[in-house]
Structures are given as structure tokens and as C-alpha cells.
Amino acid sequence: MTLSKTQRIAGLSLAAVALILFFVFRPAPLPVDTGVVRRGPLQVTLDGEGVTRVNDRYVLAAPVTGKLLRMTIEEGDSVRKGSVLASLLPPELDSRAGQEAAAKAEAARALFAEANARHRRALLTREQADRHAVRYRNLKQEGAVSLEAAELAASEAAIARKEAEAAGAAATAARYSLDAIQTFTNSQISGKPLAVISPADGRVLRIHEKSERLITAGSPIVDIGDPSAIEIVIDVLSSEATKVRPGNPVVITAWGGRKDLRGVVKSIEPAAYTKVSALGIEEKRVNIVALLNAYEPLLGDNFRVQAEIVLSEANNVLQVPVSALFRGKDEWHLFVIDGGKAVEKAVRIGMRGTWQAELLSGLREGEKVVVHPTNELRDGMRVKIQE
User: Fold this and answer.
1) CATH number, domain with residue 331
2) Is 8 contained in some domain?
3) 365 and 290 share a domain?
4) Burial label, 41 (beta-carbon count in 10 A; 0-12, 13-18, 19+)
5) Which residues on adjacent β-strands are paired with residue 88?
6) Is 6 inside a domain boundary?
7) YknX-like C-terminal permuted SH3-like domain: from which residue to which, for each copy (predicted)?
8) What are the b/e assignments for 277-302, b being 16+ CB within 10 Å?
9) Mean pLDDT estimate for the chain
């Protein structure tokens, strides 16, 4: 049956109207933001707030009750080992007080002996760590061990040296505490003021008591230390602290200077503590202690900083923005742009950093993916890339 000319025109008109209605009423492409699959370096970091503190800090306290004479030093003053920091006028010594002074002197001698033993043990550990680092450096040159193993041995040697220095400082402080108690006893007998002397070279960090007044035994008088020996105390969640190891690199940011500072994890404190978050939630947190690689004179004691602990890193990996990923049933998914449409694909993820994640399989370098996908986006939906 042959269609008439009128019927053909009517059919074409209906098809044109249907096509026009399709383009008029079909959904507009969904605007999306995109990222690109690329190769490059990737770091996995654990971020947290930190506070600086002087590594070898001496808190000089009153050995017994007495009258503290007016201080002549100021915070920030440089002091030398053996210089007088404060003067304490002790009360008169009776028979009972004499027995107490003798007991305190005996306890101070015991603490001095213990500190000396710890110092000797730390020196032995340092010597062993130094030999271990030299051996691994030689093995690395021969290709017998990896660069990471040699660097870890070098970091352990550096940490052992710092711990030996701290143990030596503790032994020095114990010796000066013993000397102070013995001098105090002698001053009680003679009626002369007791001199509180500096156990090491450094600077006055804090003066607890500036005015002349009566203070009790054990009251802190002055803090001294070496500001060049700064360490960073970083508090992190206890569940995250298990990923950190001594020797992990640390990047210090937001400390007030123009450039970031570099350091290394010295130790992870063995006990957690409870801290209430800004949302009022109780959290278990652990202190990570890090050492700076180089002295920064602008960074002082008790400064607030931001820290990034590098857990793992790689130089040339295929990576995708973390904001493009979402969970499917049992694996990670994302939307890739293909011919103006969003196509949902499953991918395998390796290392996951703050902004980028390692892509093990599923996409090729250069492909565009949708970042921050909305709930409206569906597989096969037309999309428009926002500039």
C-alpha cells in the first residue's frame, strides 16, 4: 500500500514534533566537578596538633621550707653552669630537722646513683646503635640492604644519642640536687642563705616565684634549659598511634615561619590519656615525641604547631582524588567521564593519603573522574563538566 504525499508529510511532521519534544523535555546534563587520574609522588600522613618543649628541662625547686630572697634574674637570661639563680634562707636546724635532712641527703645519694646507672646504660646503647648504623651504611654501599633499612638504623642511632644526652643531663641534675641538699644542711647550721645554682648552661625559661616570700619544700622556683634542644609533642588518637614507628619522618607546619620544618619521630609514649574534644566527646589520645633535624632559633618553648607524620610514601604512583571515591557493596567505586556520560566503575585502592589515593587497577592515566558526586548522579547519566 502506497502512502499518499499528505500522509508522508503528516508522518514526518509527527516525527519532528516528537524529536523536538524529546530534546525540550529530556533532563539537562548534571553539572559536575572533575579530577584527573595522574602519576606522581604520594604521601600517607597522620596529622595532629603539637606543642614544642625543651628536651633537657631543669625545674629547680626548694629542697626544704625556707624564705626565698628576691630574684635578680629575668626570664630569657642566659645562665652558666654553677651560677647562682636564687637564694633561700633556711630555718634554724633542730635535732629532728637534722635527722630529716640526713634522710633526704641519703635519698638524694640513692637517686644520684640510679641516674648514673641509667646514664651508663644509655651510653652503651648509643655505642651499639652507632656501630649498627655504620654497619648498615657499609652494607647499603655494597647493595646488601635497602636504603630504608640504612636510614632507619641512622635514625635509631640519632635517637640513642639524644637519649644518652638526656640521661647525662638527668645524672647532672641528680648530682646538683644532692649538692644542694648537703649545702642546705650546712647553711642551716651556719645561718647563711642557701644558693640555688644552675646545673647546666642554658637560658631561664620561667620564673615561678619572683618576690621574696616563704615557700615550702618542693615548690618550683625557676625553669632552665637549652632552647636549641627542642622536641615536638604531638597528640593523636590511640587508634592512629599504632601506625606510627620511631624513625618516621615528620613535617612541621603552621609554626609561624615561612618554610616547613623537618624532623623524625623519637618515641611513642606507652600510655594513653583522656582528652575531651571540641564536640564534648571523650577521646583516648597518645603523645608522639619528635625531634627536629635542624635548630630553628625562632621556635621557642611551648609553641603551638601543626605536624604531619609520614606513615608511608612513594615517588611515582597512579593516583586518584579521594573525593571521587565512594563505597559499593564490597569495594570502592567512582564515576569516570566517558562520552559526556558518568560511568560507574569499581577500582582497587592502595595507599590512601589526605587528598589522593593510590589506584591499583580500574582506570588509566589521564581519565577524568567526578569528584564529590551527589546522590542525584546515576550510572550512564549525562553530565556537564563545570569550569
Assistant:
1) 2.40.420.20
2) no
3) no
4) exposed
5) 68, 194
6) no
7) 317-385
8) eeeeeebebbbbbbbbeeebeebebe
9) 85
Of 109, 60, 69, the C-alpha closest to 90 is 69
Once rounded to an integer, what is the mean pLDDT over residues 179-184?
Answer: 70
Residue with cell 637519649: 163
Q: Where does the pLDDT of residue 99 fall: very low under 50, low under 70, confident under 90, or very high at 90 and above?
A: low
The CATH number assigned to the domain holding 238 equals 2.40.30.170
Closest CA to 39 of 336, 338, 358: 358
In a domain, 2, yes or no: no
74, 252 Cβ separation under 8 angstroms:
no
The grid cell for 324 is: 571521587
232 in the same domain as 197 = no
Quote the CA–CA distance of 250 and 232 in Å, as a whole number. 10
Query: For the purposes of burial, counting CB atoms within 10 Å of the CB of 319, is it exposed (0-12), middle (13-18) or buried (19 or more)?
Result: buried
Which tens digits make up the pLDDT trace of 1-48?
A: 455 667 666 666 666 656 665 555 556 788 889 999 999 999 999 999
Residue 257's DSSP bridge partners are none
Do 115 and 190 sit in the same domain of this protein?
yes
Give the domain range for residue 236. 44-52+228-313
Residue ending a domain, choose from 294, 313, 332: 313
pLDDT-above-90 percentage for the chain: 33
In this predicted model, which residue has the larger pLDDT, 367 or 18?
A: 367
Nearest in space to 59 (alpha carbons), one of 277, 273, 220, 259: 220
**Same-domain status, 185 and 103:** yes
* 191 has pLDDT over 60: no
Place of cell 569516570: 336
Using one digit for the tens of pLDDT, what is the confidence trace for 249-304?
999 999 988 899 999 999 999 999 998 887 888 999 999 999 999 888 888 888 99
17 belongs to a structural domain: no
Calculate helix-pair angle for 95-141, 147-190, nearest 10 degrees. Answer: 160
The owner of cell 603539637 is 50
The number of folded domains in the chain is 3
Do residues 292 and 232 both lie within one domain?
Answer: yes
Cβ atoms 252, 298 nearer than 8 A: no
Where does a domain end: 252, 285, 313?
313
**Same-domain status, 177 and 156:** yes
H-only helix segments in 38-94: none
